[in-house]
Write a structure and sequence with these properties.
The complex is a heterotetramer of chains A (215), B (90), C (310) and D (549). In chain B, 78% of the residues lie in helices and 0% in strands. Chain B is mainly α. The termini of chain B are far apart. Helices cover 68% and strands 1% of the residues of chain D. Chain D contains 17 helices and two strands. Chains C and D meet through helix 1, helix 2, strand 7 and strand 9 of C and helix 4, helix 6, helix 9, helix 10 and helix 11 of D. The complex binds heme-A (2 copies), dinuclear copper ion (CUA) and copper (II) ion. Copper (II) ion is lined by residues 255, 258, 304-305 of chain D.
């Protein structure tokens, strides 16, 4: 019954073809996103290479426990997202909606923790251009912290988009505008994006908070 | 519900959390010197691989999809490899 | 000795390096002409012989030939490889100035070139050098990226803010030649140029005497060393435990946390501006940063002084 | 299915599928979107050309003839920015690729038609920002936006221009994504990879670059904007940042980007050479794989733009030898085109003239690229007019010629009308002559030591500069010719049949202009590409495809 509900759109000749095209399109898109964050990671690593000392002192300013809490939140949201996808494929509408909202809530919790971290950073004078002057004198520290803001900021924007997608998707599933399991591909695609945003954090967390910590 | 919540997914989740815990512990309590960087990144790569393979379903994906995913990493390796070479030999 | 105003079709060769570069490009051109002339000739010949309606022989022929195709891609590459090696070895030489070079400091800023001779003589937009003497330029910019370009020597090098770059040459003809800024740097980029004046040794000496200055770079540096308070710590009878800078220049310095560096201009500059970046082994990192207090120009003088101590 | 097919059989051409502005601006038909691109890109080309005219006019006298120094700097910057991002990168892919790929692989449209339309709007939005930067007072950083000049010293509209380029990048990314998915998933039955026309292969390779390189430009531009607005310092030496980091990131994108500009043109040339010599391309698989090899290798050579930048000596050597390596697949293409002519039935119609011009100028541009890749030579000629001549030989001499060749070749398919052949040939000759007169003197100027981006120059360079400016005025007129006679032909041109050139390729089996859904029925492919001979205008019966049902 899944296939009967699947509407084939214009250039496609058959449902499978359309499905594969959507999947491939999503992966190619994720590859472009990976390249974009990759450029940022490259900049961060270069800063670590040219200013090991400053970057280390900057790392020590970041709270690895809050960052770790955030990692846990996102990993959990990845679990709920996976559950949503499986549920959607099985036509379990209610459970799908629940899991999507859970992911959105976990994502929102992440953003709250992040916001709190930013607030702490603000009180320390870490934020560029506003607040107190930068506290660490060692060269490279300020640079690294600025890189931290750009990368976590860009990640937060992505996560915010993910939250909107998840809530929107839950709504349309609830309204039966996206019939399940016929259009479960939509849940699947949103899930791909969500996992990807989680994966960016999987790398951001160690590169920003853990690497070279101590000393 | 049993059909919806698969134990496999939960195990994967536990592994991911375990790797996270390991990475945090390592960074906090072990002083691995210069190899610490490699360990940190290695653990993150492990997490990402698990995520890709299971949650992102590369396990059951078409070859083409796997290639698309691999392409991103391969090209990033080019950027890092050739790019860092400059700073490391300056 | 005015730069020539008539049309010239080949730039003057002012050094052995310049001659070599000209040889590379000329012989490379010859090779490439040999490689592509057949292509052009064949294209024209085929276009005529096989024009539509002509009675040429068109009996079926292969539409692929792996060996032929492999050879016409690989052989040109291997031949061109010779020129890679030649050009790369000349490039290698550019990074290895002779030890006995005459050191001159170059300071670039929007939009002028400042040159400082070891004796303290300074000039703007014009550089006097002796003929047949290796000259090594240590260059830094006070603002954006510039690039010092001597067409007659076939060399140029970007001049960066925040880091020394180097350029060396040995001019072998007396005369006046152009120098330009080759990296876009704003409004007067095209006017940020002047002349390179190559003099015979006596002429150079005379110029140095005339350009007269009361103090050499090193002497000026010594004064600054006291003015900025460096001597308070690094001086012979200081109570602070700081390294003695006599003989440091050019020698290896063991670092705190392992490794050694050669104390060159870059290292000294970093020690003054970013003292915590590389801390000498056995000392506490108590040296304050002088970032924002010491200008690039003064830094070069301090370096000249420290250099004179060895 | 059957009902769609029956509908399509009676279907009018895509041009007649609606006459309102709305039917154009909200279309999802790849053919109409291609036409939208063609119109806007032509406008951008003339805008960039006008800036080039200002540049060349100014350089007639050593002291700068018409502009101020700042005005000149803004002129070449806007010239580079517009020409690169708003003309040359989208040029062939977004017009002919967009129009022809679905036709050439036997599909009804691209995989994501709405995304395709969105790409066009995104490009226009990006252009709007860039043009805003221009009219608000201009930008003076050069198209390369080098830091710290662009971040801390320029007081022109850098951020607006960067936002414009940033936005246009998404147009590139989405177009590339669309092409990749289309080529993978929408080939007609029987259209195997090794039956694809080389044009499609080269667009596939181009798309890979678009998708993998452009995001790095995006993040680099974000960093520049953040640095300029917030002073984050990643490229600022005062905070310990490294301007060379910017250069690495920029060229990681921009070198592959130059192959975005040449690969589609190489695909066009393969179509032209085979059609006008009625021969299968020599060494199909070598030529096809050469495109992919170029796409891959293009990511390994970016450091050749930085030989004198203060990059490490070893990095310089590595990038130099890798740059020599890119010449190999390019050489394959050149030699194989030539071999294709052997025993052909050669007709020197306008598109073929452009193709031969392309090969000649590409070879000169490419070989001077090898000079630049040779370290010691580059130390002398980098940042001089030698480089300017190198890239204009490839970008204007080769790619713009390829664009014009494609335009004449597919004009009958797109519009249903023939262009006037005599005018076509004359203009091609003028373009070739004007081009060489403009840019050949620049090689000499560069070797003599005239730096680029110079508003004024030493008087001994005047003769060569005047020659170059004279050539540019011939070139300008030569570009206006096709503009005029092609417009004329829309009304008065001879009606073209489905296959005026007697070419293979599925696009020639459908009517000219094609119906809205491209084919009355999805064709089934039974032959390799370029299965000559084909009788002219017998397209529907011979094109290497049969129709079932
Ligand atoms: C479409 C655009 C395009 C293309 C295709 C190329 C192709 C090449 N380019 Fe070019 N290049 C630019 C556009 C392009 N370039 C631009 C815009 C700049 C300046 C940017 C700026 O600073 O503003 C530039 C600058 C540039 C530089 C830096 C110069 C400098 O600033 O110092 C270098 C250095 O290596 C270079 C090299 C090459 C090489 C080796 C190729 C090769 O791909 C060429 C390969 C082709 C051939 C070699 C010819 C065919 C082969 C044969 C006929 C067989 C015989 C060959 C052999 C002997 C092997 N280019
Ligand atoms: C696709 C890319 C492309 C194209 C097509 C062109 C086309 C041309 N370019 Fe361009 N050029 C670049 C890309 C391109 N250029 C880039 C990337 C740079 C580097 C910028 C930088 O340094 O940052 C550059 C730089 C550059 C310079 C160097 C400036 C400097 O370093 O100081 C010069 C100088 O001669 C030049 C000339 C020309 C000329 C004469 C044409 C001609 O082919 C143009 C011919 C077309 C026309 C002239 C339009 C015809 C129509 C009309 C004339 C009618 C309307 C006009 C009026 C009403 C006046 N270009
Ligand atoms: Cu200084 Cu250009
Ligand atoms: Cu390049």
């Amino acid at each position: 019954m899944a296939e009967t509900q699947l509407i084939v759109h214009e250039p496609f000749r058959e449902a499978a073809q359309q499905r594969e095209a959507d999947a491939l399109g999503m992966w190619v898109f994720l590859a472009t996103e990976a390249m974009m964050f990759g450029g940022l990671f490259f900049a961060l690593i270069v800063i670590r290479v040219i200013h090991p000392q400053g970057a280390q002192e900057a790392t020590n300013e970041l709270d690895m426990w809050l960052g770790g809490l955030n990692s846990a939140l996102l990993l959990t949201s990845s679990l709920t997202t996976t559950l949503a996808v499986t549920a959607a494929r099985n036509g379990a509408r209610g459970f799908t909606i629940g899991c999507l909202l859970a992911s959105a809530a976990l994502g929102a919790a992440f953003l709250c923790v992040k916001g709190y971290e930013y607030y702490v950073d603000y009180t320390k004078g870490l934020i560029p251009a506003v607040g107190k002057p930068f506290p660490i004198e060692t060269t490279g520290a300020e640079l690294f912290i600025n890189g931290y803001f750009v990368s976590t900021g860009l990640h937060a924007i992505h996560l915010f988009i993910g939250i909107c997608l998840a809530i929107g998707l839950a709504t349309v599933v609830w309204l039966r505008r996206v019939p399940l399991p016929g259009r479960s591909i939509v849940v699947e695609m949103t899930g791909r994006y969500w996992h990807f945003v989680d994966m960016v954090w999987i790398f951001l967390y160690p590169v920003l908070y853990l690497m070279d910590r101590g000393g | 519900m049993a059909k919806v919540v698969r134990t496999g997914d939960v195990i994967v989740f536990v592994v991911l959390m375990g790797l996270l815990a390991l990475n945090m512990a390592q960074a906090r309590w072990l002083d691995l010197g210069s190899s610490g960087r490699i360990v940190t990144i290695g653990l993150a790569v492990g997490q990402a691989a698990v995520l890709l393979w299971y949650f992102l379903e590369l396990r059951s994906a078409a070859v083409l999809t796997r290639l698309a995913a691999a392409a991103g990493f391969f090209w990033l390796a080019l950027l890092f490899g050739l790019g860092l070479n400059d700073w490391l030999t300056r | 000795m005015e730069p020539t105003k008539s049309v010239e079709l080949w730039p003057t060769q002012l050094s052995h390096h310049a001659q070599q570069v000209d040889w590379v490009i000329l012989s490379f051109t010859a090779l490439l002409v040999v490689l592509v002339l057949p292509v052009f000739a064949a294209m024209i010949y085929f276009a005529v012989k096989y024009r539509r309606g002509s009675k040429a022989d068109r009996s079926p022929s292969a539409s692929r030939n792996v060996w032929l195709e492999t050879s016409w891609s690989v052989i040109p590459f291997l031949l061109a490889g010779v020129f890679f090696v030649w050009a790369a070895s000349l490039y290698f030489d550019l990074f290895h100035p002779p030890a006995d070079s005459l050191g001159i400091n170059v300071l670039a800023k929007q939009w002028m070139w400042k040159f400082e001779h070891p004796g303290g003589q300074r000039e703007i937009d014009t550089l006097h050098v002796p003929v047949d003497t290796p000259v090594e330029l240590t260059m830094i910019s006070e603002d954006v990226i510039h690039s010092l370009f001597f067409p007659a020597l076939r060399i140029k090098q970007d001049v960066l803010p925040g880091r020394y770059t180097r350029l060396w040459f040995k001019a072998d003809k007396v005369g006046e030649y152009h120098l330009h800024c080759a990296e876009f740097c704003g409004t007067d980029h095209s006017r940020m140029g002047g002349s390179l004046i190559v003099l015979d040794p006596e002429g150079y000496q005379r110029w140095l005497d005339h350009a007269g200055t009361d103090t050499s770079l090193a002497a000026a540096g010594e004064a600054l060393f006291r003015k900025y308070g460096c001597s308070g710590c690094h001086g012979a009878n200081s109570s602070v435990r700081a390294p003695n800078l006599v003989g440091v220049y050019g020698s290896p310095v063991p670092l705190d946390g392992g490794g050694t560096v050669i104390a060159d201009e870059r290292y000294i500059r970093d020690s003054v501006l970013y003292p915590k970046k590389q801390v000498a082994a056995g000392y506490k990192p108590i040296m304050p940063t002088f970032q924002g207090q010491v200008s690039e120009e003064d830094l070069l003088k301090l370096i000249a002084y420290i250099r004179s101590l060895s | 299915m059957t009902s769609i097919a029956a509908e399509a059989a009676a279907e009018p051409s895509y041009l007649k599928a609606g006459y309102t502005l709305r039917s154009w601006l909200l279309t999802t038909d790849h053919k109409r979107i291609a036409v939208l691109y063609m119109i806007s890109l032509t406008a951008f080309f003339f805008l960039g050309g006008a800036a080039a005219a200002a540049v060349r006019l100014n350089l007639i006298t050593p002291e700068g003839a018409v502009l101020t120094a700042d005005g000149y700097n803004k002129a070449f910057t806007i010239h580079g920015v517009i020409m690169v991002w708003f003309f040359l990168i989208p040029s062939i892919p977004a017009t002919f690729g967009n129009f022809m790929i679905p036709l050439a692989i036997g599909a009804r449209d691209l995989a994501f038609p709405k995304l395709n339309l969105a790409s066009w709007y995104i490009l226009i939005l990006g252009a709007a920002f860039t043009i805003y930067a221009l009219v608000a007072g201009g930008v003076d950083t050069g198209w390369t936006f080098y830091t710290p000049y662009s971040t801390m010293f320029s007081n022109t509209h850098v951020v607006a221009a960067i936002v414009g380029v940033f936005i246009s990048g998404f147009s590139s990314i989405f177009t590339g994504l669309n092409f990749i998915v289309t080529i993978h998933k929408l080939r007609a039955p029987g259209m195997t990879w090794f039956r694809l026309p080389i044009f499609v292969w080269s667009h596939y390779a181009t798309s890979l670059i678009l998708v993998l390189a452009t995001p790095v430009l995006a993040i680099t531009l974000i960093l520049i904007a953040a640095e300029r607005l917030l002073g984050i310092g990643v490229f600022d030496p005062a905070l310990g940042g490294d301007p060379l980091l910017f250069q690495h990131l920029f060229w990681f994108y921009s070198h592959p980007a130059v192959y975005i500009m040449i690969l589609p043109a190489m695909g066009v040339i393969t179509e032209l050479v085979t059609t006008f010599s009625r021969r299968r391309v020599f060494g199909y698989s070598f030529v096809a794989f050469a495109s992919l090899a170029i796409a891959l290798l293009s990511f390994l050579v970016w450091g050749h733009h930085m030989f004198v930048s203060g990059q490490s000596m070893y990095a310089g050597m590595m990038f130099s030898i890798l740059s020599f390596l890119v010449a190999v697949p390019s050489a394959i293409k050149v030699y194989n085109w030539t071999a294709t002519l052997y025993k052909g039935q050669i007709a020197l119609d306008t598109p073929m003239l452009y193709a031969m011009g392309f090969i000649g100028l590409f070879v000169v541009g490419g070989l001077t690229g090898l000079f630049l890749a040779s370290l010691a030579i580059d130390v002398h000629v980098t940042d001089t007019y030698f480089v300017v001549a190198h890239f204009h030989y490839i970008m204007v001499g080769a790619t713009v010629m390829g664009f014009l060749g494609a335009l004449h070749y597919w004009w009958p398919k797109i519009t249903g009308r023939m262009y006037p052949e005599w005018w076509g040939r004359i203009s091609a000759a003028f373009v070739f002559f004007g081009f060489n007169l403009t840019f050949f003197p620049q090689f000499i100027l560069g070797y003599l030591g005239m730096p680029r981006r110079y508003f004024s120059y030493p008087p001994e360079f005047q003769v060569l500069n005047v020659m170059s400016s004279a050539g540019a005025s011939i070139l300008a007129v030569a570009y206006l010719f096709p503009f005029c006679y092609l417009l004329w032909s829309l009304r008065y041109g001879k009606i073209a049949g489905p296959n005026p050139w007697g070419a293979t390729g599925l696009e020639w089996t459908t009517s000219s202009p094609p119906p809205k859904h491209n084919f009355p029925e999805i064709p089934v492919v039974t032959q390799e590409a370029y299965a000559y001979p084909v009788a002219p205008d017998g397209g529907a019966h011979h094109g290497g495809a049969t129709h079932h049902g």
